[in-house]
Amino acid sequence: MVFAKISQVAHYAPEQVVSNDDLAKIMETSDEWIRTRTGILRRHISKDETTSDLATEVAQKLLDQSKLSAEDLDFIIVATITPDSLMPSTAARVQANIGASGAFAFDVTAACSGFIFALSAADKYISSGMYQRGIVIGSETLSKVIDWSDRSTAVLFGDGAGGVLLEASDQPAILAESLNTDGSRGHSLESCYLGLSSPYSGQEMDRKYLTMDGRAVFDFAIRDVTKSIQKLIGDASLEADKIDYFLLHQANDRMLDKMAKKLGVSREKIPANMMEYGNTSAASIPILLSECVENHCIKLDGSQKILLTGFGGGLTWGTLLVTI
Ligand code: ACO
């Protein structure tokens, strides 16, 4: 049997950092409001790097760390809701930038669950035996779809990218998974609506900016997402305390407190970095994973069980229980 193993992790964020106090200079908000409601202290905002530029930095780091050549890659998947363009895909741009001429490449659009959905698909490519190695990246420049005149969303998001190199292995990495979508609740989170526009149709307005019913999304995360994590742990015949870390989507620290309580898990097992990055949608989990490896709490030596959970627009939510 062949399985897929996460052999390298990496992340990258634009240099420019915007603090809560910086935001308070351009909108009616305060560090106190943002910090106490969300846990966010600052975020990275791109000056001139695009989503594919951020993803290319991550892809290059993964290659440098692994000493592989770009030509060794079979595929590149980028999860993003802020692509440079719909065509070519962000992944195709990365493929060209790093010179991975043998890799097929495409984007996944599943908002904050995008990295989880993409990692699950990549795992199946490798465990089918057809492909040996590939890169999965979450990359976002959410700053370009934020309505900077809407303080209720503008303070929440940031730019960044993170990713993993997956390689064929004889040890199973994904032990259990649960992927979910409820399109009927899609209106809770919307962005970049492309209206019809042709001589044969009515003219519908494009609506670029991200809108969110924050309370509905908060409740969805606490209720539905937590329930699906509990079910996955139960189905895998595991106890929550046998899991070393829970890497949950980084939207709001208060939300993580509530999820920890419902799951009966100590907050020490649920790391957070939204203080530094804000919500980076598809990039949030791989950035966190990469930072955890950097600070040695996660080791990539096959000895730990880690739960990765994304949730957001779609609505989508997904959990992978991995040995790492
Ligand atoms: N600064 C100051 N005041 C503000 C701000 C701000 N930035 N934003 C809103 N307020 C005000 C509101 O106007 C409101 O004032 P009012 O009571 O006078 O009307 C008050 O603060 C409370 O607003 P609420 O929206 O009720 O605040 P809430 O406590 O619900 O927190 C928040 C809002 C932080 C957005 C929370 O609902 C949340 O985190 N939701 C989840 C978001 C999330 O998880 N997103 C993940 C998916 S993202 C994706 O998929 C791309």
TrEMBL record:
Tell me what reaction this enzyme catalyses: 2-methylpropanoyl-CoA + malonyl-[ACP] + H(+) = 4-methyl-3-oxopentanoyl-[ACP] + CO2 + CoA; malonyl-[ACP] + acetyl-CoA + H(+) = 3-oxobutanoyl-[ACP] + CO2 + CoA; 3-methylbutanoyl-CoA + malonyl-[ACP] + H(+) = 5-methyl-3-oxohexanoyl-[ACP] + CO2 + CoA; (2S)-2-methylbutanoyl-CoA + malonyl-[ACP] + H(+) = (4S)-4-methyl-3-oxohexanoyl-[ACP] + CO2 + CoA
Any one annotated GO CC term: cytoplasm
Q: Which residues form the Beta-ketoacyl-[acyl-carrier-protein] synthase III N-terminal domain?
A: 106-183
Q: Which UniProt keywords apply?
A: Acyltransferase, Cytoplasm, Fatty acid biosynthesis, Fatty acid metabolism, Lipid biosynthesis, Lipid metabolism, Multifunctional enzyme, Transferase
The EC number on file is 2.3.1.180
Cell location = Cytoplasm
- This protein's pathway: Lipid metabolism; fatty acid biosynthesis
Q: Where is the active site?
A: C112, H249, N279
- Domain Beta-ketoacyl-[acyl-carrier-protein] synthase III C-terminal span(s) in chain numbering: 235-323
- Which residue intervals make up region (ACP-binding)? 250-254
Q: How does it assemble?
A: Homodimer.
Which protein family is named in the record? Belongs to the thiolase-like superfamily. FabH family.
Q: What is this protein called?
A: Beta-ketoacyl-[acyl-carrier-protein] synthase III
Q: Which gene encodes it?
A: fabH
